Amino acid sequence: MDPKHLDLDPKAIRELCVRYERELVYAKDWMFWFLMVWTILLLGMEWLHFFTARGVPAAMTAGYVVLLGTYIAHKEVLRWTGIAAHIHRGEIFVYIWWGALLVMFLVEYSWGTFRIPEGMTTLAYEVLGYFLVTEVSKAVNTWRKHKKLGNRE
């Protein structure tokens, strides 16, 4: 393509950027709700495993971990690029998994007949690990912005 024929109209570039930003935010919102449905289904399977020893398919758990990681990476990219997205409190996934794990611990302790599936504890640890990574990312991003603003003064 001949560089002379490129239309670099600032208004057109701005419109393209706004459209791209809107699509990124829209994708993140849909991903949140898809992840929430996946969470509920996988959590239900973990409870079935807890009560009936019916195993959870490994692909279901692996897919969840990959999907959660993708959602978090997308959210962090938006944060670091300065794109304002609708706020979905990702911490809810930590509360869901750790709340369920706590209830399983109490049931196991009280009745002594059920055993917490290893996959359940692994998932809870992974979700918490993701949460900690995002908290570090938020802190570094906030520090970077604060430092940049401090250099302007």
TrEMBL record:
It comes from Candidatus Terrybacteria bacterium RIFCSPHIGHO2_01_FULL_48_17. Keywords: Membrane, Transmembrane, Transmembrane helix. The keyword Transmembrane applies. This is Uncharacterized protein. The chain crosses the membrane at residues 30-48, 55-72, 92-111.
